[in-house]
């Protein structure tokens, strides 16, 4: 009976993590570029109560008797499905259609990757630079920050589907700005990326090395849509159903602990 206490307790802990993950999904339903997360479970070790040859005369039994010792969380996996495109009035709002990621460089010198294309133009004495809402510069196809000279006016800059920053010439025809193409990067296993917050991801051994769409012809090229943002792919109805299921599973495990406690009370009262 003590075994059942720990087994049910492991189920309650696992379902609590499940509820926490669902709550995080619902909290980020309006977060640009957010990818919904799902909890994966796995069973713990099994304890053998009877082997296949436990009969008195040693005959082979068809099956053994084993009892499980509970469950635990195996992983929390991000689902990188395409989010819906939401129209934005900002000319520096960019949505990605495809498997690509934007790249930004943080103040610590590390390069992070994101699907959040809510960018801004920063003005300084050296000209214009494209950065995210935290001020991290956006990288081009060569992995360098996108910086433009003082001769450019920010509200005249447009971006085509390939990520090229365009500026009107003397005849008001948009022309590509040299060296100013928003970089798009992919991973063999994006689910293996390390989530660091602020919709940023960092490569790991599980995700594989970063692949540059501009230099790798074997990749399906992503499309950049100016004037749009990629919304989260969280489905509120699905999350509500998952929340109900997780809550019921938590209650069942709690009931198992209560039942075990009652059985132990009954066993203790037999000696009276």
Strand composition percent: 25-35%
What spatial form do the alpha-carbon principal axes imply? elongated
Strand order of the largest sheet: 7-8-17-16
Rg measurement, Å: 27 Å
Straight-line N-to-C gap? 20 Å
Please give the number of β-strands: 20
Specify the number of helices.
2
Largest sheet: 4 strands, antiparallel
The helical percent reads: 10-25%
Q: Briefly note the structural class of the backbone.
A: alpha+beta
Oligomer: single chain
**Tally of structural domains:** 2
Q: Output the helix-strand order.
A: HEEEEEEEEEEEEEEEEEEEEH
- Average pLDDT number: 90
Low-confidence stretches: none
Can you tell me about this structure?
The protein has 272 residues and is α+β, with helices and mostly antiparallel strands. It folds into two domains: 2-79 and 234-269, no CATH class; 85-230, no CATH class. Helices cover 22% and strands 31% of the residues. The protein has two helices and 20 strands. It has a four-stranded antiparallel sheet with strand order 7-8-17-16, with no helix packed on it. Strands 9-10-11 form a three-stranded antiparallel sheet, with no helix packed on it. Helix 1 (2-27) runs antiparallel to helix 2 (236-269).
